[in-house]
Every structure is written in C-alpha cells, then in structure tokens.
Amino acid sequence: MVERAYKYRFFPTTEQENLLRRTMGCVRLVYNKALDARTKAWYEKQERVQYKETSSLLTDWKKTEDLDFLNEVSCVPLQQCLRHLQKAFANFWGKRAKYPKFKAKRNGGSAEFTKSAFKYRDGNLWLAKCREPLPIVWSRFLPKGCSPSTVTVKLEPSGRWFVSLLIDDYTVEVLPPTSKQIGIDAGVTSLISTSDGEKITNPKHFNRLYKKLKAAQKELSRKTKGSSNRNKARLKVARIHAKIKDVRTDFLHKLTTGLVKTNSLIAIEDLAVRNMVRNHKLARSISDAAWGEMFRQLEYKCDWYGRKLVKIDRFFPSSKRCNHCGFVMDKLPLSVRSWDCPSCGTKGIDRDTNAGKNILAAGLAVLVCGATVRPDESKSRKAGAMKQKPKS
Q1: Residue 358 domain-assigned (yes or no)
Q2: Per the domain annotation, does 293 fall within a domain?
Q3: Please, which residues have CB within 8 angstroms of residue 247's CB and are 6 or more apart in sequence?
C-alpha cells in the first residue's frame, strides 16, 4: 500500500468559486502575515518563531475587527498553511531550500482540507461550507474501498481549477522481476541514451510553442498595469505555459512508466540540475528537458513497483571512459559526439551510448559491493591520511 494522489479538473459553480477564492485569499493572507512575523522576530530579536506561536497569532488575528472575515471560511486550510510554512522553514534551516517567499495573488493559490473539513461519499466530494458537491470531471475513478485522507484544491495561474485526492492505494503491486537492467545517460539532443543503444529524442516542448509564447509575452508587456486587458493578456501567457507543462508531464510519465515496467534495475547519474542551469547557454534546454522531474518520477515509481534505482556519483567520467578497456580521455568537449579510443583502438564510440554502458557498470558495482565510482577518491583519501599528523 502506497500513498498516491489522484488529480482531477473541476468546474465550480459561481457560489463555490466565490467561496474557494475567498478561502485561498485568506490562506494567502495568513501565510504572508505569519512569514512576516517570523522574519521580523528573527531580524529584531534573533528568535525562531515556530508553528505553535503562529497558531496563537492566528487566533488573535481572528478576534480583531479588521480580520474578522477569517472566520467566514474553514479554519482547516488556515492551519494547514501554517504547517506548510513551518515545513518551508525547516527545509531552509536544513539547507534544502531557499528562504520562503511571500505568496502572490497572480500565481493562483491552493487550499488543503483534512478529513474534518470535507466529506467523500459515493463518488461525491463536499468541502466545508459548500452546499453542493464539487462538479469533478472523473477521468478515472478512485479504487474501490479507498477514501481520501487529504483534499487539496488548486487554482492555476491560467484559471483552471484542480482537486487532488490523497489516498492509501492498495492496488499498486510489486511487478514481477525481469532480467533486464539498464543505464541511462540524460542529454539535451537525446533526452535519454540507454546502455542498450536506444535513444529517446528530446521533444523540446518549449521550442514548439516558443514563438507563440514570445508574441503573447510581448503583447502583455504593452498593456497598462492594473487594467483588465493586461489581466486577459496574462491569462493568455499562463495558458501557453500550462499547455507546455501538461505535454511535458504526460510525456515524462509515459516514458518513466515504460522504463520501470521493463527493467529490474535502473542506473542514473546524480546530477546537480540546479547548478547546471546556471550555464546561460544551456539553461533553457536543460529546463525544458526536465531531468529533475524525470529522475523524481523514476525514484518513486521504482519504490512503488519494487524496482532498483541506483544513483552514481555525478563526477564519474561516464562519457570520457571507454567501455571496452576503461581508458579515460583527458578532455571530451560537448561538440564531440563520437570518438576513437587511443588505447584499445575501438573506433566510432558513440558518446551517449558509451556513457549509458558505463553508468550501468558503475551502478552494478555500487549495488553489489558498495564500491566508489570515483577512481581518484581512494587515492585522495590515502594521500590525506598520509599527510595527517599523528595525535599526540
């Protein structure tokens, strides 16, 4: 049994939309006020305000005359946004994320409802303070016997409404083992190159709509700020971005599901995508390829279906190492797509396929014996141990 979210689109009635927009507005207000309070407490008093203190502040805010409208919406999403803020700060102090940002209205919004704030029965979902069930487009039904533990309603910048139902899904079963193992090298021209010699061409979804997006953004920049025409132009840009995201996500889900179903072991590189996009020449191409999302999907799907996912060190010379003899080239620019090995004489070594084979070999070494995949690491450790002075 695994936790799984089912996402659906819905078209709220006028009454439901007004209530949900007010709820998201209150969530945004509480989140921003709590973030401001925590920031001031740190800079003025060097104190870390926790969830408990912000929850007390929320109670005080509801009692004031200016913020008494917070009582008109469900209290659960307001408490949940404080928990999300607490998690954001925990990630920040743990150096896993940047400092939390203030929420903006133009970015849409979301509201999370726990079991006490919604009712699910016979395929219908009622939220707190809603008289009618949400008119959800059930593209697929929830598994029988499963009921949601958390419901998240989201309004995208493009104006689309989505609801996500988190359930404990018992229908996800471990797949039967296969004898196939694969190493994957991520790229820009070819999205992935496998150790089997297969290459999946990068669809470049962003480039397909780049001209249309550029024209829409140019039109948006000419509109007067705060005008209704600017809001219409903003929605047009957001819809193009939404289309790009939907096509990319659909493609990645189909690709990763196929890889997980046909391979018992998948070896990948532990790439630092956040650092790689700092290269202004390749940033757009790398972002469009969405390597991080692809690896994230591979990771949780392998966990679902009982497959092995092995990550090797990002500094392992997979492209520069000959998979026949192990010779490592000193330099291999990105422009060189195939090369000849000066050691064993192998000619026409495809850069990407060679990298996939080396990644698989390194992944098997890590899985079997826990060996390091950095050839110079053991030497550096020995040298450091020799230089270290003995303790007196």
Answers
A1: no
A2: no
A3: 203, 205
**CB 231: neighbour CB atoms within 10 A?**
13
Would you say 167 and 142 are in contact if contact means Cβ atoms under 8 Å apart?
yes
Q: By C-alpha distance, which of 258, 284, 295 is closest to 205?
A: 284
Positions of E strands within the chain: 2-10, 109-114, 118-121, 124-127, 136-137, 150-155, 161-169, 181-186, 190-194, 199-201, 265-269, 308-312, 338-339, 349-350
CB burial of 109-135 (b: ≥16 within 10 Å; e: otherwise) equals bbbbbbeebbebeeeebebbebeebbe
Taking the CA atoms of the chain, what radius of gyration do you get in angstroms? 26
CA–CA gap between residue 111 and residue 319 (Å, rounded): 46
- The structure's pTM equals 0.85
Count of Cβ atoms closer than 10 Å to residue 260 Cβ: 22
Name the token pair of 20: 């949900």
The answer to whether position 106 is within a domain reads: yes
Q: What is the pLDDT of residues 203-226, one digit of tens each?
A: 999 999 999 999 999 999 999 998
Q: Is residue 156 part of a domain?
A: yes
> Catalytic residue numbers?
185, 269, 352
Q: How far apart are CA 373 and CA 328, in angstroms?
A: 13
Q: Using one digit for the tens of pLDDT, what is the confidence trace for 226-254?
A: 899 999 999 999 999 999 999 999 999 99
Mark 240-255 as b/e (b = at least 16 C-beta within 10 Å): bbebbeeebeebbeeb
Residue 30: domain span? 2-169
Strand, helix or coil at 276? helix
Query: pLDDT tens for residues 76-103?
Result: 999 999 999 999 999 999 998 999 999 9
Domain count of the fold of the chain: 1
